[in-house]
Amino acid sequence: MNREELLAAIDEKYKGMGQNPDVHLSGLLYAESMTYWDFANVDALLSLQIKRTTLPDEMVFIMYHQINELLFKMILWEIAQVSEQDDITPEKFSMHLARVSRYFDMLSNSFDIMSEGMEVEQYMKFRDTLTPASGFQSAQYRKIEIASTELINLIDYRFRKTIDRDTPYSHAFEHMYWQAAGKDYSKGEKSKLMQNFEKKYRVELISFMEEYNLINLWTKFKQLPQEYQHNVELVNEMRHYDHTVNISWVMHHYNTAAKYLDSGQGSSKATGGSDWHKYMHPRYQRRIFFPELWSEEELENWGVTNLEGHQVLTEIPQRLTNK
Predict the structure, then answer these.
(1) Contact (CB, 8 A) for 163 and 175
(2) What would the pLDDT profile of 235-265 be if each residue is shown by its tens digit?
(3) Who has the most CB within 10 Å: 122, 187, 243, 271?
(4) Is 215 helix (H, G, I), strand (E, B) or coil?
(5) What percent of the chain has pLDDT over 90?
(6) Which whole number is the average pLDDT over 13-33?
(7) Residues with Cβ within 8 Å of residue 127, at least 6 apart in sequence
(8) Domains parsed from the chain with CATH numbers
(9) Whole-angstrom Cα distance, residue 160 to residue 232?
(10) C-alpha to C-alpha distance for 219 and 289, rounded to whole angstroms
């Protein structure tokens, strides 16, 4: 685009916005040039690491979780590109799912930063200072789950028969699978971890549940034309994403936790107080975003075998084309 074309495009843009393009061009005369540290807000970013103890390895733990939250934000951004677009093509759907899977692959592989980057003795000391805080309290991660699948697939198995599309969102929220990490259903009591989490995020998450009720990835996929639902590349991306989030990433997290909590140094309980062995392991959670894209055998062995990979389809199985 030459200078005349560029000026004409700028003129058209701002006139279309009901603004005077000359004012914006004039403003460019006084604008400072962009620098990397301003663009990335480096100074602000590097000021956010605040230790609560005297133990050096706590800094690794803080920065690692902040990196996770940034990646969670990237994942939610990509999911929105699918959920908020009408008439999406299978190619674009696949492209954004592939991006999300790469982010989760990065998260899975990054657990070595903690497992090999923190001394067990130091971690088992500074973790007491963090109680009752827990990675469970990541609202962004809960949003990723909600934006990925229908709520029924996130409901605790014990209560799924009590939930349907007419169930109030507040009721569904009380029976999400992760409530088991901080709620005693027999007594109706919630841990301090859960109380703190809900005080800050309950209203926000229920609103998010309502927003994504009909535009989550699974519902969005099922709204596609049949020929798109039978696109091998798209189905493989859906399966890869499901497996990466709900088995690979979870198991890397589980194994890292086991290195420290099963070390025999200090308490083996999670900072939030949950039975983390059962809460975290996919064979107990059985959280599956896209259940109809898996065979009965794959569903039966979910989280039990084939933890590091899954079958890549070369053609759409008959069981899927019949749905």
Answers:
(1) yes
(2) 999 999 999 999 988 888 888 878 777 666 6
(3) 243
(4) coil
(5) 57
(6) 92
(7) 260, 266, 271
(8) 3-31 (no CATH), 58-321 (1.20.58)
(9) 31
(10) 10
In this prediction, residue 311 carries a pLDDT of 79
Q: H or E stretch including 280?
A: helix 276-280
Give 187-236 pLDDT, tens digit per residue: 778 888 889 999 999 999 999 999 999 999 999 999 999 999 999 999 99
Query: Which tokens hold the place of 3?
Result: 């200078």
Contacts of 227 (CB under 8 A, 6+ apart): none
| 21 neighbors 10 (Cβ within 8 angstroms) | yes
Residues 6+ apart with CB under 8 A from 266: 124, 125, 127, 128
**What is the predicted pLDDT for the residue at 220?**
96
* pTM of the complete model: 0.88
Please report, as a single letter, which amino acid is at residue 291.
P
* Among 234, 158, 168, residue whose Cα is nearest residue 206: 168
Q: Which of 205, 184, 177, 189 is CA-nearest to residue 281?
A: 177
**Structure tokens belonging to residue 257:** 């936790």
176 DSSP β-pair partners: 155
Question: Residue 189 is inside which H or E element, if any?
Answer: strand 189-190
